[in-house]
Structure formats: C-alpha cells, structure tokens
Amino acid sequence: MDKEKLQAPPASLLDRYRGRDFHPLYTTTVTVSGGETGHGRASGVARSDDGNLNMELRLPPELGGPGNGTNPEQLFAAGFAACFHGALNLLCQRARLETNDTVVEAQVSFGRDPMDGGYELVVDLRVKMPGVERRVAEELVRNTERLCPYAKMARQGTVNIVTVVD
C-alpha cells in the first residue's frame, strides 16, 4: 500500500468565520488515569480517544519524580509550538514566502505564582526564520500571535467546563 504524501493545510483556513457561536472543526478527548500512585501527574497514563496518543506520565526529577516519561508541560509545549508553527506557516503561505526551515521552540516553565501563592505556567516562544528579513519575520510573528489559538488562549484565557460525571 502506498503511503499518502503529507500536505500542509490550505491557506483557505485563514478565511474569516462569520458565525455567531463557536464552530468546532475538530474535537479530541484525552483520558488520564492515576496509575501506580493514583496521581495522574506522577504515574498516570494519557490515552486519546483514537488511540494515537498512549503515554506514561511522570514527574520530572526537578519536581521530585523519576523522569523517564513525559509530563504535562512537555505536552503543552509541543502543542503550543506545533500550533504556532502551523499558523505561521499559513501566513507565510499566503504571503508566498518559502519558510521550510522555520523552527518554533516553546519553553514552558511550571512554577509558583506570586499573585495567589498557587501555581502558574510561563511560556517563552522563540521563532527562527532563516532567510526571512527580520522586519518581515517580526510582522509575521505578531500576526501569528493573533491567529494561533494557543497564543490566544494564553493571552485571553479559555472557556473551561468542569463537570463531575458518574
């Protein structure tokens, strides 16, 4: 069986939506169980509804864990960097810029929040666009910050619906 060639999404995804309500284009569900310690972050397993994600979660050594597994910050960093890269790619496609060497690095820090004493995530994105004039790259990144749903969520927050189910 021939493997289908991967393709970037079309620039038509940049077309504005004019509806009144949120219009989902894709929904996924990931379930985390507690594992050996009963603590999802320390020994859990994360599984997606389609089975493509199935991984052990482990606390990193910096938080008192053994490492040897991924953690929520790594998953969030991967999602954020991938989404930002994809949105940037769409804008470059529309501008007819060749940006195959573009790299987005997301650094996510988990730490204490001085405002409420709880916890907080801090995200630092670094974008490398070799061969693209700095002024052009900066404008593209600013526009990507408005387009990327992860950047929008980090800036504005998100709708959270937490429900206890039987």
Question: Secondary-structure blueprint of this entry?
Answer:
Blueprint: E1 30-33, H1 40-43, E2 45-48, E3 54-56, H2 72-94, E4 103-112, E5 119-128, H3 134-147, H4 149-156
Antiparallel strand pairs: 1-2, 2-3, 4-5
Helix pairs in contact: 2-3
Q: Can you put this structure into words, describing what you see?
A:
The structure is a single chain. Helix content is 30%, strand content 19%. Helix 2 (72-94) crosses helix 3 (134-147). A hairpin with a 5-residue loop joins strand 2 (45-48) and strand 3 (54-56). The protein has a three-stranded antiparallel β-sheet, with no helix packed on it. The mean pLDDT is 94. It has two domains: 19-70, N-terminal domain of TfIIb, CATH 2.20.25; 71-166, GMP Synthetase, Chain A, domain 3. It is globular. It is an alpha+beta fold and 166 residues long.
